[in-house]
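**Discrete fold encoding**
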Amino acid sequence: MTTTVLVAGGTGDLGGRIINALIEKGADVRTVVRSSTDSAKVEKLEQRGVTVFRADMTDLAGLTQACTGVSCVISALQGLRDVIIDAQSTLLDAALAAGVSHFIPSDFSSDFTQLSVGDNRNFDLRREFNAHLDSTSIAATSILNGAFAELLTYNIPFLDFKKKRIGYWESADWRVDFTTMDNTAAYTAAAALDSSAPRILRIASFQISANELKTVAEEVTKEPFELVRMGSRDELAAYNKRERAAHPEGETEIYPDWQRGQYMHSMFSAQNEPLDNNRYPDVTWTSIQEVLATRR
């Protein structure tokens, strides 16, 4: 029997990859897009056999129609409170009204259950929505994948190809969780088709410390990299707090500079342990070497 899965946010990068993974697994895939979504994007999805529903995320009736007959709803929505809390709550209400049995929220992050309120604004929104989700009768599964591994190709402080520098906080032996978007999508698709998926699944394509990353970066580039301690976690948290207070305009931005600092703090504060990688053996995990081979 074919399982029907609805993906919200299917025109986004991660959402599109999740749709691809579900199609590969033989699922009947639906997606819901805004009424204003470009027709070319809709046509491309429909050509792949995806059933597309046009409904704004405030349209409870339209979302309920999209959820009818669905076994799992996956949210790949991204944004601030109006999306993570308000839009996801309407989507959840629609799933409940339609009798959907499984809901995967748009977490896809470091393990925010290990962080304190205020450490990461965007994770606080996820925590708030999950509290609401847990108050309902629907079975839920959060996919916690650490940071997306593609970040390592964009000259972030942890790996800066331009400066030939590995920057870290607290300890050079702390291992940071990274998962590629394709691995995250494949695992999420498998979880959506798993009627016994648990509340939280923690994954990582690889976990790597600053010391280990220095070795790999030098092997890949054939150039030396400098290892630089950027400070302690507490110092980074204090810096982020000062920057957030000094730049309140960032509260309406998804990625203000202080939010990027909060992500760095989360990467060096939360660790996925134990990993649930082996739950779905069909997922082939990407190595750090394969990721760095695609660097810009």
